[in-house]
Structures are given as C-alpha cells and as structure tokens.
Amino acid sequence: MADVTVYGFPISTFVNIVRLVLTHKEVAFDFHDLEPEMGSPTHLSLHPFNRVPILDHAGFTRRRQSRSMSTRFLTVPHCNRTTCASAPGCINGSVR
C-alpha cells in the first residue's frame, strides 16, 4: 500500500490531473473510486462539500483543488516521514 491515496472517480478531469502529475513524478499512489459513494457519509467525511479529488498522504488529507495539489503539493520533493527532516522542501515538513 502506498503512502499517497487519490480519492475520486475515473472520469473526472480534475482527478486525472492529479493522477497524471503523480505518475509523472513517479510517486507511488493508490486510487480509490468514490463514484459509488458520492454524497454518502463516507465521502462527506473526506470532503464536507462533496468534491473530488481528495488526496491523502500518510493520513494527512488535503481537500484542495486539483490545481493547488498539482502546483503546491506535488512539485516539492516526495519523501517519507523517516527522511523528512533531511529533505528540504519535503511535503511532510513544509507544505501543508
């Protein structure tokens, strides 16, 4: 299981932008299809405004727009919690 999980549905352009950037950056990620759950309490617990995409990195959920995810979160070096202190610009340490 990867540290990064993208929640959304496959037909969404916004979800696919995030998936494309993750693939380009060679970041391993899991995809969770929310289409059958749209509007359900499960989806609303992830995003109270019933939106996608939702990005979860090691338990820290980001509910921003795909553009923000692509430009702010995904453009900095990707690391895990054990190497975070030694990686300047790490997503775990500086971009929240």
| CATH class designation | Alpha Beta
**Major sheet description:** 4 strands, mixed
- Strand line-up of the largest beta sheet: 2-1-3-4
Cα-atom Rg, whole angstroms?
A: 13 Å
User: Which regions are unreliable across 5 or more consecutive residues at pLDDT < 50?
Assistant: 85-89, 92-96
Strand content: 15-25%
Q: Quick check: average pLDDT?
A: 75
CATH topology: Glutaredoxin
User: How many DSSP E strands?
Assistant: 4
CATH architecture tag: 3-Layer(aba) Sandwich
The helicity comes to 25-40%
Helices and strands: which structural class? alpha+beta
From the N-terminal CA to the C-terminal CA, the straight-line distance is 22 Å
Give me the strand/helix succession: EHEHEEH
* Shape, principal axes of CA atoms: globular
Total domain units: 1
At the fourth level of CATH, the homologous superfamily is Glutaredoxin
Protein model, in words:
With 96 residues, the protein is of the alpha+beta class. The protein has one domain: Glutaredoxin. 27% of the residues lie in helices and 18% in strands. It contains three helices and four strands. A four-stranded mixed beta sheet has the order 2-1-3-4, covered by helices on one side. Strand 1 (4-8), helix 1 (13-24) and strand 2 form a beta-alpha-beta unit. The chain is globular.
